[in-house]
Amino acid sequence: MDSVTSFLASSWPHMRDLVVAYVLALIIGWNRARATRSAGLRTFPLVAVASCGFMLSVEGISEQDTEATARVLTGVATGIGFIGAGAIMKSGEQVHGTATAAAIWATGAIGAAVALGAYHIAVAIAAFTAGTLYLLTPLKPHAPEDRA
């Protein structure tokens, strides 16, 4: 029983971070799902949790090699950029999905910030991203229908 207690005690900070990243991203995912965008309720929390997980997984290494954290963060940001690129679609002259792609990238930053213990930055990114998606979407001009 002592090993179970020890495991739970040692893993609690990481579990807490994963839950915080998940919840912050869920707010953004909810917006995208309600707007029936290409990425939504499942994608955003998964991106945040994965980003957080990648950063947490090098925690022991980064104590010995301070550049390891920077390399992993660079890889996470690059990988999420590819996921975001998949959300962008072009139809004729119209380009759709750029806000979703940017939100995916921001969600990755939320997960990374949580993993690094920068909760205030994670909350700020989540607030700015959600605020932009919820408050500015009604102000976006709609493209006229194709007449072709």
From TrEMBL:
Primary site of residence: membrane
Membrane topology label: Multi-pass membrane protein
Annotated ranges, domain MgtC/SapB/SrpB/YhiD N-terminal: 18-140
Bilayer-crossing regions: 12-31, 43-62, 68-89, 101-128
Localization: Cell inner membrane; Cell membrane
Keyword flag RNA-binding: no
CC annotations in GO: plasma membrane
UniProt-listed InterPro entries: MgtC/SapB/SrpB/YhiD_fam (IPR003416), MgtC_SapB_SrpB_YhiD_N (IPR049177)
Record key words, sorted: Cell inner membrane, Cell membrane, Membrane, Transmembrane, Transmembrane helix
Pfam families hit by this protein: MgtC
Similarity annotation: Belongs to the MgtC/SapB family.
Protein's recorded name: Protein MgtC
